[in-house]
């Protein structure tokens, strides 16, 4: 009887051991599956960065996004396009921005003075030019900025000089030409260069000042360039990583792409002049 009891206890012990081993393997498998799921989730959810860029960069940067994300699948780029001054004010207000690209040096200088950008990352990456445009069907004889003083020219659109660098460049050019006082009451202020372009495309104004790159994006047959407007300050675009960025490594990757050969080639395709030229 004692011998049979011992045999039963041994058999029971073997079954218990097998059961524990099975549970252990199951737990290990669950852990492995959890790790795999977590890794897969990480690969499918790249780090997102927000790039606040001047409105005039819309087409070029949108094109750049596709190429950049193909080469950097771990980064998802989200754009915020507007007048450079408005974008600066958003950054000053604490907006979650990782990269700032301005259409002039002034707004970047202000952020640098407030220590809101990483100065070591700041680079100039492109140049542009200012042009005067009119609706294609205009019957006004506008061939240069001095023609804007004619009484039949009633509405001239410029970007708001406080927030849109294109407007600042325009007012400087008009002032230097000695005609600002004669035409300032005719001006229709726009939020950014894209709005100026829209006003002229629709024939809502008689003329407008935009960048050459924006004139090239106009709907076919809607506008014509009548003059290139000289400015005393180079229309230079700087870019930098924002100090409060939570994704500085990814932000720097984007800055490096913009200033690198591939980014420069795309910008040139859209009419920008590489800063090095």
TrEMBL record:
Keywords, ordered alphabetically: Metal-binding, Molybdenum, Signal
A single BP term in Gene Ontology: molybdate ion transport
Any one Pfam family match given in the protein's UniProt record, by short name: SBP_bac_11
Record GO terms (molecular function): metal ion binding; molybdate ion binding
SUPFAM superfamilies noted in UniProt: Periplasmic binding protein-like II (SSF53850)
InterPro entries: ModA (IPR005950), ModA/WtpA (IPR050682), YvgL-like_PBP2 (IPR041879)
Alphabetical list of NCBIfam families matching this protein: modA
Protein name from the UniProt record: Molybdenum ABC transporter, periplasmic molybdenum-binding protein ModA
């Amino acid at each position: 009887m004692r011998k049979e009891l011992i045999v039963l206890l041994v058999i029971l012990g073997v079954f218990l051991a097998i059961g524990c081993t099975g549970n252990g393997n199951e737990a290990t498998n669950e852990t492995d599956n959890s790790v795999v799921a977590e890794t897969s989730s990480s690969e499918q959810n790249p780090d997102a960065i927000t790039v606040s860029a001047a409105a005039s960069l819309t087409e070029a940067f949108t094109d750049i996004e596709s190429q950049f994300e193909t080469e950097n699948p771990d980064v998802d780029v989200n754009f915020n396009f507007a007048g450079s001054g408005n974008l600066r004010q958003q950054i000053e207000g604490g907006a979650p921005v990782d990269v700032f690209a301005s259409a002039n040096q002034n707004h970047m200088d202000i952020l640098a003075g407030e220590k809101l950008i990483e100065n070591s990352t700041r680079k100039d990456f492109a140049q542009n030019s200012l042009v005067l445009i009119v609706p294609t069907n205009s019957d006004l004889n506008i061939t240069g900025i001095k023609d804007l003083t004619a009484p039949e020219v009633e509405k001239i659109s410029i970007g708001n000089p406080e927030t849109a660098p294109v407007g600042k460049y325009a007012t400087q050019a008009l002032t230097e030409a000695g005609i600002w006082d004669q035409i300032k009451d005719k001006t229709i202020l726009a939020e950014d260069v894209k709005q100026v372009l829209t006003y002229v495309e629709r024939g809502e104004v008689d003329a407008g000042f935009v960048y050459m790159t924006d004139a090239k994006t106009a709907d076919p047959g809607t506008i014509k360039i009548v003059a290139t407007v000289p400015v005393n300050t180079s229309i230079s675009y700087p870019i930098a990583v924002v100090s409060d960025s939570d994704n500085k490594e990814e932000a720097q990757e984007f800055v490096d792409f913009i200033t690198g050969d591939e980014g420069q080639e795309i910008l040139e395709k859209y009419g920008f002049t590489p800063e090095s030229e």
